[in-house]
Design a protein that fits this description.
Keywords: Isomerase. The chain has 238 residues and is α/β, with parallel strands linked by helices. The chain has two domains: 8-107 and 226-237, 3-Layer(aba) Sandwich (Rossmann fold); 109-223, Rossmann fold (3-Layer(aba) Sandwich), CATH 3.40.50. Helices cover 47% and strands 13% of the residues. The chain contains eleven helices and eight strands. The protein has helices at residues 16-29, 52-58, 64-76, 93-97, 108-119, 132-137, 139-145, 156-168, 180-195, 208-211, 224-237; strands at residues 7-12, 40-45, 81-84, 104-106, 126-129, 151-152, 200-203, 221-222. The strands form two sheets. A four-stranded parallel β-sheet has the order 2-1-3-4, with helices on both faces. It has a four-stranded parallel β-sheet with strand order 6-5-7-8. Helix 1 (16-29) crosses helix 11.
Amino acid sequence: MKPEDKILGIIGGMGSIASSDFLKELMEESPAQNDQEYIEVLLHNNSKIPDRTEAILHNGESPVIELKRSANILENAGADYILFECITAHHFAEEVIEELKTANFLNMVDIAVDRIVEEFPDLNNIGILATTGAVSSGLWQKSLKKHNLNSVLMDKKIHEEEFMKSIYDEKGIKNNYITDRNKDKMLKCVNNLKQKGAKAVIAGCTEVPLILKQKDIDIPLIDPPASMIEKIIELFYF
């Protein structure tokens, strides 16, 4: 099955491991039967993009200039669709979208929430596994609220000591430490959300699906990169 004659542009590097994993998963989920039937993809692994959480919470260097540079590179190279392979970066999406001339922006947050509504119409009380930056910006809470869905947040201590350290520590997931230690930290976060009433959880940071799978927990796990891949397959093949 040949895809639509369009080009997908991915702004990566946030982090690089998650970006390469996303591209691998996209190719594995493709219905292509030969080399010529895969989606044409441009990945700009922009490792110069400053940390998004630092920018949101601590007045760190804004990532907008580098996000715009990546978007311009991809659009000038012919990308018809552009996405961020980082969820927290969506806090800055509007400023980047304003720069786009012809490319369409694919919003991973909204696409994932749309999947919740479609696949789990009776669920409410959605737990959020996301960076402190994403939670502070209200990215997930705002998107869920549009569909009258309640957000459940981790306790502050659990968020900082378990979730953020599992991602950002020297031996964290961003540095490709897919370890039992980091999985245990993530499971503590899930248990905290369940204790607070969550009936499903969103893997609201793109590093989370690298270590946490549906088989690891007993409530639905919403995987935004997987939801985005499903959307891309729909756009390009069906």
